[in-house]
# Entry
Amino acid sequence: MARLTEDQLISRFFAPLATASGARGLTDDAATLSVPQGQHLVVTTDALVAGVHFLPDDPPDLIARKSLRVNLSDLAAKGARPLAYTLCLALPENWSEDWLARFAEGLRQDGEEFDFALLGGDTVKTPGPLTVAVNAFGMTPTERIPRRDGARPGDSLYVTGTIGDGALGLLTRTGRGDLDALPEEDRSYLTRRYLLPQPRSALAGAVLAHASASMDISDGFVGDLAKLLRASQVSADVELEAVPLSRAVRNACAHDPACLERALTGGDDYEILCAVPLGERSVFEGMARAFGVPVAWVGTVTSGDHPARFLTADGRERTFSHGSFSHF
Amino acid sequence: MARLTEDQLISRFFAPLATASGARGLTDDAATLSVPQGQHLVVTTDALVAGVHFLPDDPPDLIARKSLRVNLSDLAAKGARPLAYTLCLALPENWSEDWLARFAEGLRQDGEEFDFALLGGDTVKTPGPLTVAVNAFGMTPTERIPRRDGARPGDSLYVTGTIGDGALGLLTRTGRGDLDALPEEDRSYLTRRYLLPQPRSALAGAVLAHASASMDISDGFVGDLAKLLRASQVSADVELEAVPLSRAVRNACAHDPACLERALTGGDDYEILCAVPLGERSVFEGMARAFGVPVAWVGTVTSGDHPARFLTADGRERTFSHGSFSHF
# Structure
């Protein structure tokens, strides 16, 4: 079968996604991006590599959606509304039109769901694994977005959703670990959560208005919390019982207690971790409810530069041998 | 030797380059990008893969600078002033701190030369080749940037610099082709031009003010001209004698006439091709002189949808078997 040229490939699969006016249907060398008066641009970028961040045989539409969602998750944690993205796609020799059509369908789906338009990109071939680099643009009405370094003693710590699904989902997806005894329903839930994280874009407004510090949890709850506390030069007491776990993770932990450590320190959550001053808790919780995003109080920021203390229900302190996931 | 963590790697090599205020020293998950009142943002992205766009053993500082320059070239062709960039770097297993230090030094050097600050990025590991994806931001005082589709019959066609150095430089760099008979001075000139293209940022203002259509030549003069003409629904008469060639390319063509076709159709020029209305020629040429960018008139835009005619000095038409470089 004759291969599409790069221009054909772009016009067939990607141009239909380039709905932003400045993208000009991807027919030019650059796009223009207009930022509405009074709005500020938030920029973040995350790359995913086959065999490192996803499995080469993951469904192409889910690879595409995960590529967008890990970036959307960063925007949400910074209180920004999704605006547009650029895409650099390095395709291995064995790409097929069918694969690419399904990949583009994934982009289309999440582009619509999150009102996130393709602005431009580059498609190159690689002798290595599929690599997807997304550069995401969001907007906020203020430059004072929540950073990692704003948490203050007395603030409450919150996380969205549930923690550890992604880390255990990697095990169910790959068949590693010993989770075969889990009900099929739990296993497929965990796999799905690994393949398709849920960016908490609906919480962006509440985070922007009420969080003193915020980040998304991508390298594990314990390690990312440590990063936020270090940046803020504070510590924290965390109630382990309060950390929200899905039924599937609870079942896995009942089956194998080692799963708890993996759930709390593994990566791929893409939930928001944020600190909220005491006086803003009820408004923050109210907004989260109004926007349908589950949030859970998990502890309190304290003063000092010692690592966070993780307290069990009986008041004992628990430590973790692995802090967080690191690529290097 | 213990490997640096991702955070250490970022703070040691990349944070010093993040001089834009919104980059916050790369200590957070996202950056803010402020666009001055009345300015518009131009966005472009280009990825380079080892073994495809450069050789794995090219000097790391030149790989870094080429990664920026292919993007700077796009900004220049669109009349935009460089503002900032994000960098996604996929590092193979065998990276070393020395390699990375030299790569970062290349970024620093061109960042200073082009006033182009690192805004954010992502560093991941890859089981494949080194891959560098840059997302570049430029500014213009108007949204009406020169596109590919604005050329009109009667406009003059210009190119900057010289054509074909990069394509022949790939041969001298790799030892392929038969250019050993060239003087060492010519060979090292060509290799250098392949390794380190010269973005024509100084011409951005003239292009913005006077070009009816513009693009950078990355996939070969003949093929990229065809793209510009097709987008503009016009044709052109090109005087082959007028296409500016370096002494090294002229020497190579004297040695092997097949070099001319390679020079005119090969890639990696990163020069600007633009169309300028007749009445603006003298001002455009004057601005180019004032800003020290060599420009050469190479032909005239004509009406019709036939391919460009390439005319030799004796008035005959020449055709090329390969139109342009395509990755797929």
Observations:
- The longest strand of chain A covers residues 81-92.
- Chain A has two domains: 6-25+37-140, 148-318.
- Residues 87 and 121 of chain A are 4 Å apart (CA to CA).
- Residues 148-318 of chain A form a domain with the Phosphoribosyl-aminoimidazole Synthetase; Chain A, domain 2 fold (CATH 3.90.650.10).
